[in-house]
Amino acid sequence: MAGVAQGYTPEKFLGRPLNEVERKYAPPRLWAIGDLNLARVGARVAVVGARKASIEGTRRAARLAGELATQGVVVVSGLAEGIDTSAHRSAIAAGGRTIAVLGTPLNETFPRKNAELQKQIMVGHLAVTPFDLGHPTQRQNFPRRNRWMVLISDATVIVEASDSSGTISQGWEAIRLGRPLFLLRSVAQNAALKWPDKMLAYGASILSSTDELLEMLPIGSTREQVAAAF
Description:
The chain is of the alpha/beta class. The protein contains eleven helices and nine strands. It has a nine-stranded mixed β-sheet with strand order 1-2-6-5-4-3-7-8-9, sandwiched between helices. The longest helix has 16 residues. The radius of gyration is 16 Å and the shape is globular.
């Protein structure tokens, strides 16, 4: 395991107090390795989606993550197969920064094939998890991981997800916290899916361009200011 894992309260990790809504589902403690400034300075966008992603879905994730990274935005994702892996790798390839929010303790990797990617993120970026060493890797870890991913991100983009995808839980958490939630047009207009129309009815938006997303980021997170943070 690269570096030394450190434990933090959510407030200490983010460098700010949580409001009442954020605190409701925040973990009491979390563990991280890497550059904490990535969670505190500039803008962060979660790029997430299906593990069993289509080829075009992974391409869309890569394109979006690369464009965000070149604008100085930190790309947040969950180190899962498919969309998440594509987002992390593209952000790094573009010379940007990324945060991996894990559903396992820091000394484990899921899927195992991403062990080297996880190590790379720990060394040059930031990995964080709400699960202490020795915590079993269980199915319910991943929706809990998704809640934390929303909490540290200024916005979430769902690239591709089926009606049974765990990614949907992240969309609903973004809506609960009042964080901007975007759906790629390709998934929002997929007539075979039921969940996009429901989320759009509750305030999600269809993402038409990266510029539209950048304009929604917090005040002080313009292209020039975000880039200057690195």
